[in-house]
Amino acid sequence: MEIVVRPMQSGEAAEVHKIGRRAFTWFESLWVSKPREALVAVKDGTIVGAILYKFMKTRGTKIGYIDYAFIDPHYHNQGIGGRLYKASIDFLWEQGCDALTAIVKDDNVGSWGLFLKNGFERVSLSEGVRQLGLWGMLGQYLGTPFCFGAGMEFYVALRDKTCVSGKGGSIKQLAAYISTNLLLFLLTIFRRPENALTFFIAYFIFLSGGILAGYFGTLLSRRKWHFRFNNGGGLVCASIQLTGNMFPMVGNWYPEEYENSDEFRKDMGMTALFGWVFVLFLSILSILMLSQHVIFRYFREIGFLFLIYRILAIYPFESYGGRRIYQWKRGIYLLMAIISLAVMAIIYFS
After folding, report:
1. How far apart are CA 65 and CA 312, in angstroms?
2. For residue 157, which of 28, 100, 125, 294 is within the disulfide window of CB 3.0 to 4.6 Å?
3. What SS3 state is found at 187?
4. How far apart are the first and last CA of the chain?
5. Which domains does the chain have, with CATH numbers?
6. How many CB atoms neighbour CB 216 within 10 A?
7. What tens digit of pLDDT does each residue of 276-307 get?
8. How far apart are CA 27 and CA 208, in angstroms?
9. CA of 198: how far to CAs of 49, 213, 245, in Å?
């Protein structure tokens, strides 16, 4: 039977909410609220997916923001997502929007692939300001989960013109990742000024070394890769680092083309595994060399936190690599978690 996409009707919000809760992991599902406005995909009289949206106005500009998009897990791989996205985006344009926006997790290919096919572009914050204006971008940043979403990226579609990405190639993205995280790290140093330069250098080594290790992981595949800085979650990262702790914004290696295969999941997992091995190496080195130099004390502290981030395969930590390994080989993920916990225990009790 044909799939019908239509506005959600009175009395259907509870059912749409229930499907949304099923479509996400248990933690992410906690944030899926009961919808006020939505477009639903209906098959054989049953709602099988929905796109939740809202309108935001800034200085005469009407922006349609796509809040959540999901398909009931029982109806995946039936072409429903493509139909739902296209019909929903056409509907939002018909409502007189000047621009459409969305935020998507970095590895959520199912969602961002459909956005790209429907005229969206993944954009930098500066490009978002250029296209939406300072107040428009500020409204998007603070009026959506973007400011809290570590690993999230911002997508824009414009009515009358093509939106430029503004992200640039890997070199530009690497520079943005390193410089932004080091600037945020200054907030940590203000709370802990002792040996600030040494602490700063230790943090830089973890950031840059993790990128380099991930790059070596990409060399084991024949795919073309690029580095991308994910600009979501800046507010929560800054807030945590103001307390004297470390929570870096996310950057990672991504293949130019995605595919649904075991070989692809292996290639993605290898980049994350190499990054984890680097963090593990520095953490073990810090245990062995603690008495040699103060930098190893900071290696211990940073390594302890980064090992936690690397082994958590749930949002908001999954973009640090743990989920890639979990989706590739659960046995390897379990071994990685056990080794990490053992090293963390040694650091904590020594």
Report:
1. 29
2. 100
3. helix
4. 65
5. 4-158 (3.40.630.30), 170-349 (no CATH)
6. 14
7. 999 999 999 999 987 788 899 999 999 999 99
8. 30
9. 52, 22, 16
Residue 117 to residue 261: CA distance in whole angstroms: 21
CB 202 within 8 A of CB 299: yes
CB 269 within 8 A of CB 327: yes
Say which DSSP state 261 is in.
S
Radius of gyration for the chain, computed over Cα atoms and rounded to the nearest angstrom: 21
- Tokens representing 262 are 């075991």
What does the alpha-carbon distance between residue 63 and residue 190 come to, in Å, rounded to a whole number? 38
Q: Tell me the three state secondary structure of residue 103.
A: strand
pLDDT for 154-168, tens place per residue?
Answer: 999 998 777 777 677
DSSP bridge pairs for 58: 61
Q: Report which residue type is found at 85.
A: Y
Alpha-carbon gap, residue 313 to 323, rounded angstroms = 4
